[in-house]
Amino acid sequence: MRFYELLTLGFYLSFAVLAWRRSLSAGRRAKATGIAVAGFGCIAVAAAQSQVHPIVGIAARNWLPVMLIPMAYWQTGQFVLPLNKVWQARLQRFDQKPLLARICSSVRSPSRRFLNTILELSYLFCYPLVPCGLAVLYWTGMAEFAEEFWNIVVPPAYVCYATFPFVQTLPPRAIEDSTTSRPRQTKLRTLNLFVLRQVSIQANTFPSGHVAASLAISLELIRLTPRVGIVFLCVAASIAAGAFIGRYHYALDVLAGAGLAVGSFLVVVAMAH
Question: In the chain, where are the structural domains located?
């Protein structure tokens, strides 16, 4: 059993058990449990297939985390708590530091419309970035590094999701005044907000899973295929900037997510060598 598979099994089991210990609605408890059962089944089937049909099974195990990661996000999203207004106020106060406030106000100016477009597009790209990162390994003939790739990407993503059942806040876009804080409402932003309404849990995750996963992917690709990795790093940096400037996340969410990605990369690479 691979490390990231064991970690996933532990994650699913922990929050399935927690769902039965918390005062959740029957529907939410059933979803949290159902996701765990589905995840266990998928991992077991893929592992079994790798013994019977190695080529098919290994490919399935390599690609399965593309589905397992969002399932973990949706599982923890079933937990509902009162908003932690103290922590939310701290996140807001950090964003009000002069440098951060100046960055937000300058990028929202009419002369920065092109940059706004780039950042919104980058944030939208955070969803396909994960499978694209794995696809690069296949494209460059380095599919044998898929296990290491996921060992780096999965842990920081799960840490980001694991905090949600214990500390919940609203994203800045949901609480800030529309005329003084939010970016311009463009078609790309409208699309981003639509996607979030369809697939997100409608609350803030601390740290940012999007930032953690995208940076972790880019760091591993820089090590394995530097030219492509630099491109991914630029996209990851744009996702981080778009998350903050677009008010999808607080600055501390972004910084903490980046820190988790760097830490995971350094630990896994050090252990592998």
Answer: 1-80, 82-272
pLDDT at 181 over 60: no
pLDDT tens-place string over residues 229-258: 999 999 999 999 999 988 899 999 999 999
Tokens of 90: 């701290």
pLDDT digits (tens, 9 = 90+) for 16-69: 999 999 999 999 999 999 999 999 999 999 999 888 888 888 999 999 999 999
Distance CA 34, CA 29 (A): 8
Task: Kindly provide the residue ranges of all beta strands, DSSP E only, lying in the chain, ordered along the sequence.
Answer: none
Q: Which helix (H) or strand (E) holds 13?
A: helix 3-21
Contacts within 8 Å (CB) and 24+ apart, 42-45: 42/67, 42/68, 43/5, 43/8, 43/9, 43/68
DSSP symbol at 79: -
What CA–CA distance (Å, rounded) separates 45 from 55?
14
* pTM as predicted: 0.92
DSSP 192: H
